[in-house]
Design brief:
Two copies of one chain form a homodimer. By secondary structure, chain A is of the alpha/beta class. Chain A folds into two domains: 124 residues, Rossmann fold (3-Layer(aba) Sandwich), CATH 3.40.50; 111 residues, HAD superfamily/HAD-like (Rossmann fold, 3-Layer(aba) Sandwich). Helices cover 36% and strands 20% of the residues of chain A. Chain A has ten helices and 15 strands. In chain A, the strands form four sheets. A six-stranded parallel beta sheet of chain A has the order 5-4-1-13-14-15, with helices on both faces. A five-stranded parallel beta sheet of chain A has the order 7-6-8-9-12, sandwiched between helices. Chain A has a two-stranded antiparallel ribbon with strand order 2-3. In chain A, strand 2 and strand 3 form a beta hairpin. The longest helix of chain A has 13 residues. Chains A, B: One of its GO terms (molecular function) is phosphatase activity. Chains A, B: It comes from Evansella cellulosilytica (strain ATCC 21833 / DSM 2522 / FERM P-1141 / JCM 9156 / N-4). Chains A, B: Keywords: Hydrolase. Chains A, B: InterPro entries: HAD-like_sf (IPR036412), HAD-SF_hydro_IIA (IPR006357), HAD_sf (IPR023214).
């Protein structure tokens, strides 16, 4: 895609962490960019693999950064999975290895969340980033799977960078511990899987060719968008995997900017 | 190897769980087999991937089954790793994600075991089966690795069968969670790695051709022994992976018995 065609798109899909904000700090010009796009009558969706916070948590965080957003514009793995379960299985009994936010979101969609170590059997077990993950939970999950429970994961990211460059383990590493025992691959909903992108497009009633995805993570944001035929803007400055792809051929097909600020300067 | 040549071997290396005993129950005729081999002046070693119990714990367990064994005859991943560290690095500062037995064994070899969350940096972090494994330990390990600590694992088994067929997560699943984040393979000492076999042979002062390994797990006992040129007796009755290998070519080279009892009946 040519840079000059960016403003012909109807829908702008944004990654959040590493793109619109870094932890609790807004990216430079992020607020101005969102305001500008609204002025141009563009539809906006935020697509995040975050499996700890739900849309309401993130709405609050964005508001603190001066960015006003409707919860409907925020598409999280945390929120989507409850909706998916309802459409696929109806309202069911679930165990959740994950945050309070994830549990709340599952309950919000009408499911029953059983206690982690309840003897009652769950039909589905959901794995998200769980700071209370432990050996006994791992044991519970693999034994529930043996008894027939389906295991689903929010996202497959192994880790994300935290404060001062600290490594923060993510859902993908917990999933790896489980898969190593069960030998069954666990389906995940986050990027690069198509679910969140598709849900975003459907909620805007547009086709892939009318959207552009803007993100810093090549493996999730760019690869996921490309697999659906959505154009990508790749922010290279904060990318944790920029070098790995610098030489690839497909990279020539995507628009690259260093940062949200550079992107804003180019389109405004 | 031909079955009739078994008694020409000088050293009998036995796996423990699934071979000599199942949990806290001795295998039928296990005591008689060991007594018979001692009567034939055979040297005996027990080689186990157990990363929770050390040789003294296992000596007690065997004694309760009527099998008298010297601690020197029991070779565990738990005990070996402290010795390896001493030979390779001298006496060092270590963090241990594992059992009290593993920690005691490391200390026994002269190393300093730091508290799990001590700010003091460890030179090496050892991963064993840890029923107190948790998210914060996972985070500690990957961040210590980032700062330069070497991570070593006792064994790579993903799980083992517990009471009533329950799945008991093992060291290998915890290692998978870590490796998924660090992208660095973790070296392990248990079977099928050569370390414990080699240590067993050296302690008996024999060559591989003078030994036979008896075990139920093809992937660890048989594969490990074969890679060193040690003959194998494979106990198929309790094997968790018998079917997987039934058709393989190498299987024709190894002696198969259903159980320790059948093995005893054939050699006595």
């Amino acid at each position: 895609m040519n840079e000059s065609l960016l403003l012909e798109k109807k829908v702008f899909l944004f990654d959040l962490d590493g793109c619109i904000y870094h932890g609790h700090r807004a990216s430079t010009r992020a607020a101005e960019l969102i305001a500008f796009l609204r002025g141009e009558n563009k539809q906006i969706r935020f697509i995040t693999n975050n499996s700890t916070d739900n849309a309401i948590d993130i709405q609050d965080r964005l508001l603190n950064m001066g960015i006003q957003v409707a919860t409907e514009e925020i598409i999280t793995a945390t929120d989507y999975i409850g909706l998916y379960l309802k459409e696929r299985f109806g309202e069911i009994k679930v165990k959740v290895v994950g945050s309070i936010g994830l549990k709340k979101s599952i309950i919000h969609h009408g499911h029953v969340v059983l206690d982690d170590f309840s003897h009652e059997r769950a039909e589905v077990i959901i794995i998200g980033r769980d700071v209370t993950f432990c050996y006994e939970k791992l044991k519970m999950v693999v034994n529930e799977e043996k008894r027939g429970a389906i295991i689903l994961g929010t996202n497959m990211d192994a880790a994300h960078p935290g404060l001062n460059g600290e490594i923060v383990p993510e859902t993908g590493s917990l999933i790896a511990a489980i898969e190593t025992i069960t030998s069954n691959p666990i389906m995940t909903f986050g990027k690069p899987s198509p679910y969140l992108f598709t849900y975003g497009m459907e909620s805007c009633d547009v086709k892939a060719s009318e959207c552009v995805m803007i993100g810093d993570n090549y493996d999730t944001d760019v690869v996921g968008a490309m697999s659906l035929g959505i154009s990508s803007v790749w922010l290279t400055d904060v990318s944790i995997n920029a070098l790995k792809y610098e030489a690839s051929d497909t990279i020539k097909k995507i628009v690259k900017f260093k940062s949200i600020e550079d992107f804003y300067m180019a389109v405004r």
